[in-house]
Amino acid sequence: MRLSYFITFLSVFSFWYATANANIFYRGNDGDPETLDHHGTSTTSEARLMDDLYSGLVDFSENAKVIPGTAERWDISKDGLIYTFYLRDDAFWSNGDPVTAHDFVFAYRRLMNPLTAAKYATLLYPIKNAEKVNIGELDLLELGIRALDDKTFIIELEQATPYFLEQLTHQTGKPLHQKSVEALGDQFVKPGNLVTNGAYVLQSYTLNSRIVMTKNDYFYDAENVAIEELHYIPFEDRSTCVRAWEAGEVHICSDLPAQDLERLKIYKDSLRIVPYLGTYYYALNTTDEFLSDPEIRRAMSMVIDREFLSEEIWPGMIPAQSLVPLGINNYPLGSPNTDYFNMSMLDREDEAIAIMARKGISKDRPVTVELMYNSGENHKNTATAIADMWSEIGIKITYKIRDAAAHYAYLRDLGEVQVARAGWIGDYSDPYNFLFLLESDNTGFNYARYNNPEYDALMDRASNELDLNKRAEILQKAEKIIMKATPFLPIFYYSSFTLVSPEIENWKSNVMNKNPTRFLSFRTSG
């Protein structure tokens, strides 16, 4: 066994030495993007690509802190409603054109244009009139943004939003090269067409194979970008990425199969297990005839043994008792308690069985329900285990499996579904970024089709409350409603699992799991 490990290490280090000399960084990613139009993206794997291709007004540092991006500085009015950004004189697009405030105006109006159908437009609803523009009630010119001149961009908010700068690090806050988008239409994302302003520029994209980027010499901080060429390799199957890493074919695996974590400890510091601001959950379609009954949804949640799943299938994950994850900012009291989490699993199972019996459903008289999940061994093992738990209360499961891009596209397009696996990683550290998922008008991410006017009203109140403590109390009331109604079944709070080559320097593990390639480098010998 030790000899085989020694041979593996030899092959890995041989590859790392060769690729370091070639200055090509092979980065395993969770799958292919649905699109390279950042107004159509939504997943963390897509966000990594956008963070390398584009620079927003502000960006994340290697420690996931907000730092100046295309804007070198900004002013915020005393009432917190007006943000004035001053763009760098040395900010250029990859074709040499200067980046201007007008590029941000174009991008933000396109994001909010109802015809764009950007599912993530809601993230920037703090901008004045954004929601009304996005739903077609106001003209695009009414959006609360303007270019004072080529280098000054002004954003006006509906109300003071303390986390707004962090929101702007998201891909929705990044600019677009107006000339190429208008000239090329939806072809602007093709290699050779895509004009970007980040550390890298797109060279090629081969579906199911790789996305190749090279250093953008026009990037304002190009002299400090060490890695010259970057290959993103998609891996739907996490085990395949691990084998590739061990064979020396990639430097990074962005996610790992939980069952391999114990074995992978032999790689010591190369294995990074870090708390991650996210929740793994199942969405239950509340408009489905069977699942519209909140008592049935409650029974389905009660019978899930989250401790077993975290110990046997997802070591490193934390059993979830709420939608909002632990450790989030602006939530001093944390999530409300849900009564059945204080019960033993045996008592929970007994109550769940009794609920279903009152509906005429039992293990001997089951109802068939379809469960959708995106491909991957961790998701498969979880689905299989939960299906076994649900069989005890008379629910028989069939499966529908797609790759990640197709799975999430189907959900966002409101395809027919009963139960669907999903996950949400915080775009910024605030409970609203999780609770907004279940707002009735959030059709892009409300996979449960949940519609509760009381819940919506509380979310509106929270959005207009400037006192952070009062706002947290309102959000806690909102979360209590959805934990009782159970449109989402939270299962785990995430941890990030990453394999990092010892030849890669400056990989800073953080709760946002953000590691832009521009800050990485190859370790020098000696």
Keywords:
526 residues; alpha+beta; D-Maltodextrin-Binding Protein, domain 2; Dipeptide-binding Protein, domain 3; seven-stranded mixed β-sheet; 19 strands; 21% strand; globular; disordered N terminus
In DSSP terms (H or I, runs of 4 or more residues), the helix count works out at 16
The whole-number mean of residue pLDDT values reads 92
* Assigned CATH superfamily of the largest domain: Periplasmic binding protein-like II
Mind summarizing the main beta sheet? 7 strands, mixed
> What sort of overall outline do the alpha carbons produce when their principal axes are compared?
globular
State the low-pLDDT regions, or none: 1-21
Question: How many beta-strand elements?
Answer: 19
CATH architecture of the largest domain: 3-Layer(aba) Sandwich
Structure description:
This protein is of the alpha+beta class and 526 residues long. The chain folds into 2 domains: 2-251 and 501-522, D-Maltodextrin-Binding Protein, domain 2 (3-Layer(aba) Sandwich), CATH 3.40.190.10; 275-496, Dipeptide-binding Protein, domain 3, CATH 3.10.105. The chain has helices at 2-22, 44-53, 101-112, 130-134, 164-167, 178-184, 238-246, 261-264, 294-302, 306-312, 345-358, 377-391, 404-412, 432-435, 453-463, 468-485; strands at residues 24-29, 58-60, 66-68, 71-76, 82-87, 145-149, 152-156, 200-206, 210-215, 229-234, 252-253, 271-284, 318-319, 367-374, 395-402, 419-425, 488-500, 504-505, 521-522. Strands 11, 12, 13, 14, 15, 16 and 17 form a 7-stranded mixed sheet that branches. A hairpin with a 5-residue loop joins strand 4 (71-76) and strand 5 (82-87). Helix 9 (294-302) runs antiparallel to helix 11 and helix 15 packs antiparallel against helix 16 (468-485). Residues 1-21 have low confidence and may be disordered.
